[in-house]
Amino acid sequence: MKFLPSLLALGAMFDASLAAPSSSLEPRACTTPKVRKNWASATTAEKSAYINAVKCLTTKPSKLGKSHKLYDDFVWVHATLFQQIHNVAAFLPWHRYFLTLYETSLRQCGYTGNMMYWDWVADSAKPSKAKVFDPTTGFGGNGNTTSTVWGTNCVLTGPFSKSSGFTLRYWNDEVRPHCLLRVFEPGYPEYNITEMYGDNYSPSVMAQVNAETTFDGFSNYLENVPHAAVHSGVGNLNGDMGPQSSSPNDPLFFLHHTQVDRLWYLWQRANPGARTFAYGGYKWPDYTPAGLDDLMPMGGLGANVTVRTMMDVNASNLCYKY
């Protein structure tokens, strides 16, 4: 394990685990699940429809009654609840719900497809060449890296570039309007640091993550190594995807977290009887043991729901697969 960002290191100390059999909990009522695709295998039309819907969110009024736009609602809620949803047991189920609410908002913009994911494991050898960064059919590439001054590392290509007019309101919990910022980690072979920290979300690292047999062990490893490395690899310190509470500023955040959700889904499906409702660890703020009936706050984006309702993607309230 080569990468453990200090901002996210707290979760590594927790190793408790709780589990409950799926047969006695959530009914499996989903008969026609939606399919979430790999961005790399989506058609040009599917990619265009998704990106157009994302841009549409920046024109819709806030659902929260704020002076910002609907897209900013997701940034504001994530930033406001940041401590409550990271390095705690609820990290995976909370973000699963967050993605579901985002997908629902995309549909309000006429999008008829489903969430898609960036398979950064497959791209870990050369992340900067991933199809998701294509300037025409993707999210654009790196930001301007000629300056170290905050706010100047604007994305130069693609639908969210500075020239496209895509602007963001928040930086962490402050109002600091800016262009979309990215600062790809270039890699330093002499220090054994690979491009965009790709060796920290490689197939070999994911094999170690998947070898964890408890929810708590799996969740902490996934959050603090591959998940965190992707954030820092794309954003570094001055980019929106870096270790910022406002990281949903970058539309790539949602494909990144759909991949995180997919990896959890695959871990669950590897042993569904034992893992569908496997849950454990600690909860914020007092770090008492977490449970399936804990309520997850959503800051007004959606109803506060229990962890239990987000555990089984085969249930009718989720109803999707990868």
TrEMBL record:
Residues 86-103, 250-261 form the Tyrosinase copper-binding domain. It comes from the Eukaryota. It holds the Pfam family Tyrosinase. The keyword Nuclease does not apply. The keyword Signal applies. Keywords: Copper, Metal-binding, Signal. Residues 1-19 form the signal peptide. One of its GO terms (molecular function) is oxidoreductase activity. InterPro entries: Di-copper_centre_dom_sf (IPR008922), Tyrosinase/Hemocyanin (IPR050316), Tyrosinase_Cu-bd (IPR002227). Transmembrane segments: none annotated. This is Tyrosinase copper-binding domain-containing protein.
